[in-house]
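Lecture 7 notes: from sequence to structure.

We start with a single chain of 258 residues. Read the sequence below before looking at the structure.
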Amino acid sequence: MGLFDRIGRVVRANLNDMVSKAEDPEKILEQSILDMQEDLVQLRQAVARAIATQKRTEQQYNKNQSEANTWQQRAQLALQKGDEGLAREALQRKKTSGDTAAQLKSQLEVQNTQVQTLKRNLVALESKISEAKTKKDMLKARVQAAKANEQLQSTISSMNTGSAMGAFERMEEKVLELEARSQAAHELGGVDLESQFAALESGGDVDDELAAMKAQMLGGSAPDQQALPQGTTPATNTTQNVEVVDAELEELRRQLNQ
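Now the structure, written as tokens:
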């Protein structure tokens, strides 16, 4: 294989690759419809020209046929008048017009066939263009859907899903930790409440003990009445002791309540 052949193949390959990459399906579809419509316009013009030619041929045929009939009548008239030379000339003109008419008739038949063929091709092309327009819209919708899907997949692929899932798992663990702390606080609050009720329930024993202490203090003060200072009576001393005990009792109660 020659060097120039290899270079030519490489150039063609690169050009084909560039053309393939540059091809946009939507644009190519639109251009294809435009090309077919241009072909339709040209075909319509061709049909119009063929019909016009057919009409002219038909007119010429009718004219020559009419002239042949006229020369036939003139030949008969000349023969009736006894002028055979004029009759012969008329018949000669009739033959010329008749031959021309025969040729035009054959040509007219060919043109008629061509016109009918062009008309059928025109109808077929119009049908193909209509079908192509419908398919074009469907294909464009499929192209747009494929592009959207490709873009979505590209976006998903470019996303850092590993770090996102890691952050999600960390937040999930944090939520579990917050729930555990909330549950622990609730349980601790319940224990403290139980302790408070236990303290209240045990308050009766303290009152009983205070009452016993009060009774002992009142009972132990009787033997010492003689030692009271002058001007002080036992009743007064007892009242003072009760007030002191009551004040101490109120202080203890206040401390317990706090």
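The two ends are 110 Å apart (CA to CA). Keep this in mind for problem set 3.
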